[in-house]
């Protein structure tokens, strides 16, 4: 799609573009913006200063730069550079670097003479929020830190956990207009270099004007961009990312996005919460199984209701059928219509709740959940059995730790409902088969998405549907094809040896 | 000689042969084969199941011998032995056979769905959706087809558990005395039984898609043993549940058995069972469809995608010609007989010819 548009390069060249060769050519364009400032300082008024007021930290500059330059008697940039207390200053005449730096919060200092050399001084104004608690992937136990919108802070959060010179960061810039910084983070010696190359090649091939968030990148570089399933994990937890890096996966950090992408990934990982590793393995495994059951329940229960009550009422045992019939005896709609109305109501509630501030959102939840639900049943528009089922299904769909996957699960049931209306149980099985086939065809960085279920890799089951204790987690997952296959030397670890000496 | 070599991203590990072969063998047959073998060999027919299992295992070994170390497929072997034109004709006939099997498996299962679920269902749109599904699976490549077969394996394994009801309610002395029927009848029952073992002929098509094919023999044989034991278990369960007059009158004894099972939320298990078994049917049909397209694709070199759409249209239009129960029954009998001949006559013959031809060619090469 977007990343295959390289053939259009010739077309682009046809556009007439005025060449910008020197700093003086650049100035007229920049001066049109009102926040671009141009000052002349120095005792002989020979020093020009250029900067964007909105990008720089004025407090810092006023004292240490303007104060010193006010009466300075220099006419050489090198002397000036040594005079000023900035460590990252540089002198250049490369117009591309000057333009880029000016736009990221540098100040350009220049002498009024014919020299094209410009001294660039860092004075970046940081307007990022503080590191705070995770809001989507909240956990009761364990660290409570989440990524923020700044690239360097995010990489700092990862590096704090992995103190290793082998942790490499590859920086790229994507987006024709936004020029967003993107970093590919991986551990050299563990991550498979092929994976790093694939990601680097795909990201640098992205042709789009704006990259506002990591989800832009996720949609553009995933193997099948037509699929409703996310093929790259996005998370806001630094511990999850660090742990994935140690397993040999690769993280993609995008500037301006509090979500970091991890690749390659598999379907079962989307149902694993990072809190699973903080609990003992029996409890964690039980929770994972509950989550997977919740997903199956959430997708299938409404279609089942429609199928059974439309076609196969013989399947239901007599006693249960009595309950169903008595709850439905006054309903004027067929089951399909009843189910669709309630499903849409729940989706409306969720959508309204997500758009509103927290306090109003709660009110909406109460109004919607209790008032509308009870009223609909009492008015005889829906049966209370279906109301219970649909509310449970909605609840179950929110147990998925990764929000993006939860959305997919919630929308997945609509085709199922339609198939259930057409061919009853057989229709549900047909849609299950379509779903399985779709999942079988998906890949993440060319690796099968359903692994370890298919292709069956029994070794990777140690951390998939269930999570086995750390003492058997000796090997890294096969899915990442790591260069270093073993986490630890299992032969040397014997936890019980230290007991009772 | 230049052999066909598939892309490495489409190859699967030899261990998966266990699932592929089992999934192709278990189709609609498991719902009704007990009636067919019991009508010939009575309640001693379980001996024929074991005999058929042994025979098919021998055929699997023969297939492994034919394919040899070079991992050739059927097309290569045919051309090597019969020359270009005759070899292509044979492959074409084989492809047609595979396509017919894939369509007839679907249509005969739709018949069951019509009888149990929707007597007045419009079959055209239903079959259309099924062919869309099959194309969707097949265009994913061999890995997807195998993946689907892999999941269907667990479905059939799960369904096999529910035969327990027969042991709970049946009479074991139905089976006694053993060897009550003449030995000739037991031998004769091998023929209808081998319909249910059809599917191993597909190995000839997908052999190049298996990594380290030669090491897969043990998996193929264990798969065949597994199938034999599933059939044996199923047959014994039904033989002790029904008496031998009753079983002749029931078209699908397994479905009748499922009727008895009930759970607190499912009273008529056969509805769930038919739905679940449908997954196994699609897997079988898909493997056959994929193999037939692979045959034609290798013959003509048209793109796999176009071929599969074209042949699924042909498969779909076949529904306009097959419109009653008797016709389905006739075609099924014919195609199964063709399959048995292919399995027990053509493949051993091919092996003998292959031995002779390669011997002669080797001699020529030495001279």
TrEMBL record, chain A:
<keyword id="KW-1133">Transmembrane helix</keyword>
<protein>
    <submittedName>
        <fullName>GerA spore germination protein</fullName>
    </submittedName>
</protein>
<feature type="region of interest" description="Disordered">
    <location>
        <begin position="1"/>
        <end position="21"/>
    </location>
</feature>
<keyword id="KW-0812">Transmembrane</keyword>
<feature type="compositionally biased region" description="Basic residues">
    <location>
        <begin position="1"/>
        <end position="15"/>
    </location>
</feature>
<dbReference type="GO" id="GO:0009847">
    <property type="term" value="P:spore germination"/>
</dbReference>
<keyword id="KW-0472">Membrane</keyword>
<feature type="transmembrane region" description="Helical">
    <location>
        <begin position="289"/>
        <end position="311"/>
    </location>
</feature>
<feature type="transmembrane region" description="Helical">
    <location>
        <begin position="361"/>
        <end position="379"/>
    </location>
</feature>
<comment type="similarity">
    <text>Belongs to the GerABKA family.</text>
</comment>
<dbReference type="Pfam" id="PF03323">
    <property type="entry name" value="GerA"/>
</dbReference>
<dbReference type="InterPro" id="IPR050768">
    <property type="entry name" value="UPF0353/GerABKA_families"/>
</dbReference>
<dbReference type="GO" id="GO:0005886">
    <property type="term" value="C:plasma membrane"/>
</dbReference>
<feature type="transmembrane region" description="Helical">
    <location>
        <begin position="385"/>
        <end position="404"/>
    </location>
</feature>
<dbReference type="InterPro" id="IPR004995">
    <property type="entry name" value="Spore_Ger"/>
</dbReference>
<feature type="transmembrane region" description="Helical">
    <location>
        <begin position="416"/>
        <end position="440"/>
    </location>
</feature>
TrEMBL record, chain B:
<comment type="similarity">
    <text>Belongs to the amino acid-polyamine-organocation (APC) superfamily. Spore germination protein (SGP) (TC 2.A.3.9) family.</text>
</comment>
<feature type="transmembrane region" description="Helical">
    <location>
        <begin position="334"/>
        <end position="353"/>
    </location>
</feature>
<feature type="transmembrane region" description="Helical">
    <location>
        <begin position="89"/>
        <end position="110"/>
    </location>
</feature>
<feature type="transmembrane region" description="Helical">
    <location>
        <begin position="308"/>
        <end position="328"/>
    </location>
</feature>
<keyword id="KW-0812">Transmembrane</keyword>
<keyword id="KW-0813">Transport</keyword>
<dbReference type="Pfam" id="PF03845">
    <property type="entry name" value="Spore_permease"/>
</dbReference>
<dbReference type="GO" id="GO:0016020">
    <property type="term" value="C:membrane"/>
</dbReference>
<feature type="transmembrane region" description="Helical">
    <location>
        <begin position="122"/>
        <end position="139"/>
    </location>
</feature>
<keyword id="KW-0472">Membrane</keyword>
<feature type="transmembrane region" description="Helical">
    <location>
        <begin position="274"/>
        <end position="296"/>
    </location>
</feature>
<feature type="transmembrane region" description="Helical">
    <location>
        <begin position="12"/>
        <end position="33"/>
    </location>
</feature>
<dbReference type="InterPro" id="IPR004761">
    <property type="entry name" value="Spore_GerAB"/>
</dbReference>
<feature type="transmembrane region" description="Helical">
    <location>
        <begin position="146"/>
        <end position="166"/>
    </location>
</feature>
<feature type="transmembrane region" description="Helical">
    <location>
        <begin position="45"/>
        <end position="68"/>
    </location>
</feature>
<protein>
    <submittedName>
        <fullName>Spore germination protein (Amino acid permease)</fullName>
    </submittedName>
</protein>
<keyword id="KW-1133">Transmembrane helix</keyword>
<feature type="transmembrane region" description="Helical">
    <location>
        <begin position="186"/>
        <end position="207"/>
    </location>
</feature>
<feature type="transmembrane region" description="Helical">
    <location>
        <begin position="219"/>
        <end position="242"/>
    </location>
</feature>
<dbReference type="GO" id="GO:0009847">
    <property type="term" value="P:spore germination"/>
</dbReference>
<keyword id="KW-0309">Germination</keyword>
């Amino acid at each position: 799609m977007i990343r295959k548009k390289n053939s259009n390069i010739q077309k682009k060249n046809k556009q007439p573009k005025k060449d910008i060769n020197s700093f003086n050519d650049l100035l007229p364009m920049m001066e049109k913006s009102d926040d671009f400032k141009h000052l002349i300082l120095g005792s002989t008024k020979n020093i020009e200063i250029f900067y964007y007021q909105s990008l720089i930290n004025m407090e810092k500059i006023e004292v240490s730069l303007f104060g010193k330059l006010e009466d300075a008697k220099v006419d050489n940039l090198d002397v000036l550079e040594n005079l000023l207390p900035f460590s990252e200053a540089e002198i250049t005449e490369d117009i591309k670097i000057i333009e880029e730096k000016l736009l990221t919060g540098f100040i350009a200092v220049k002498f009024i003479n014919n020299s094209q050399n410009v001294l660039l001084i860092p004075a970046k104004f940081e307007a990022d929020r503080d590191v705070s608690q995770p809001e989507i992937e909240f956990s009761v136990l364990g660290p409570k830190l989440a990524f923020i919108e700044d690239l360097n802070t995010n990489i700092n959060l990862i590096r704090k956990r992995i103190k290793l010179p082998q942790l490499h960061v590859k920086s790229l810039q994507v987006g024709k207009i936004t020029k967003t910084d993107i970093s590919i983070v991986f551990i050299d010696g563990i991550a498979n270099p092929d994976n790093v190359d694939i990601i680097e090649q795909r990201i640098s091939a992205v042709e789009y004007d704006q990259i506002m968030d990591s989800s832009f990148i996720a949609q553009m570089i995933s193997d099948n961009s037509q699929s409703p399933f996310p093929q790259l994990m996005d998370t806001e937890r630094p511990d999850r990312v660090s742990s994935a890096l140690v397993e040999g996966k690769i993280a993609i950090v995008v500037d301006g996005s509090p979500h970091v992408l991890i690749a390659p990934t598999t379907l079962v990982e989307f149902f694993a919460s990072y809190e699973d590793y903080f609990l003992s393995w029996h409890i964690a495994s039980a929770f994972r199984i509950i989550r997977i059951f919740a997903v199956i329940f959430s997708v299938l229960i409404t279609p089942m209701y429609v199928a059974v009550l439309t076609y196969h009422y013989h399947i239901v045992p007599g006693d249960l059928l009595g309950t169903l019939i008595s709850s439905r005896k006054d309903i004027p709609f067929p089951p399909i219509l009843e189910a669709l109305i309630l499903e849409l109501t729940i989706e409306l509630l969720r959508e309204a709740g997500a758009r509103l501030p927290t306090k109003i959102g709660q009110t909406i939840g109460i109004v919607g959940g209790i008032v509308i639900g009870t009223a609909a049943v009492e008015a005889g528009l829906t049966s209370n059995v279906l109301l219970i089922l649909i509310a449970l299904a909605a609840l179950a769909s929110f147990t998925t730790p990764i929000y993006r996957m939860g959305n997919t699960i919630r929308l997945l049931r609509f085709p199922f409902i339609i198939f259930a209306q057409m061919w009853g149980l057989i229709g549900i099985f047909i849609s299950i088969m379509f779903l399985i086939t779709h999942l079988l065809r998906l890949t993440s960085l060319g690796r099968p998405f359903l692994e370890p279920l298919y292709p069956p890799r029994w070794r990777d089951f140690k951390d998939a549907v269930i999570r086995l204790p750390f003492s058997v987690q000796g090997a890294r997952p096969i899915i990442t094809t790591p260069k270093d296959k073993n986490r630890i030397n299992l032969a040397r670890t014997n936890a019980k040896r230290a007991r009772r000496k | 000689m230049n052999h066909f070599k598939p892309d490495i991203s489409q190859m699967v590990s030899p261990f998966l042969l266990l699932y592929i072969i089992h999934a192709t063998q278990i189709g609609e047959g498991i719902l009704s084969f007990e009636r067919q073998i019991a009508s010939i060999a009575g309640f001693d027919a379980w001996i024929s199941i074991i005999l058929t299992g042994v025979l098919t295992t021998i055929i699997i070994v023969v297939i492994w011998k034919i394919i040899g170390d070079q991992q050739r497929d059927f097309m290569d072997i045919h051309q090597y032995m019969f020359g270009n034109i005759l070899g292509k004709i044979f492959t074409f006939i084989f492809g047609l056979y595979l396509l017919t099997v894939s369509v007839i498996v679907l249509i005969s299962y739709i018949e069951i769905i019509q009888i149990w679920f929707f007597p007045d269902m419009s079959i055209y749109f239903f079959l259309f959706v099924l062919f869309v599904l099959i194309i969707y699976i097949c265009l994913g490549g061999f890995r997807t087809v195998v993946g689907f077969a892999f999941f269907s394996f667990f479905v059939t394994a799960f369904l096999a558990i529910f035969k327990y009801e027969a042991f709970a309610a049946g009479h074991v002395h139905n089976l006694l005395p053993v060897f009550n029927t003449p030995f000739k009848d037991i031998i004769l029952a091998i023929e209808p039984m081998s319909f249910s073992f059809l599917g191993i002929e597909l190995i000839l098509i997908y052999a190049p898609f298996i990594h380290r094919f030669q090491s897969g023999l043990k998996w193929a044989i264990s798969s065949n043993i597994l199938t034999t034991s599933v059939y044996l278990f199923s047959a014994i369960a039904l033989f002790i549940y029904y008496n031998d007059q009753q079983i002749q009158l029931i078209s699908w004894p397994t479905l009748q058995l499922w009727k008895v099972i009930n759970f607190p939320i499912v009273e008529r298990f056969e509805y769930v069972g038919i739905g679940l078994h449908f997954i196994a049917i699609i897997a079988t049909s898909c493997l056959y469809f994929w193999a037939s397209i692979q045959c034609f694709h290798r013959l003509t070199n048209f793109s796999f995608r176009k071929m599969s759409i074209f042949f699924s249209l042909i498969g779909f239009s076949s529904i306009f010609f097959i419109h009653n129960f008797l016709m389905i029954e006739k075609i099924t009998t014919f195609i199964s007989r063709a399959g048995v001949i292919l399995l027990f006559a053509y493949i051993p013959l091919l092996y003998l010819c292959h031995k002779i031809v390669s011997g002669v060619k080797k001699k020529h090469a030495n001279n």
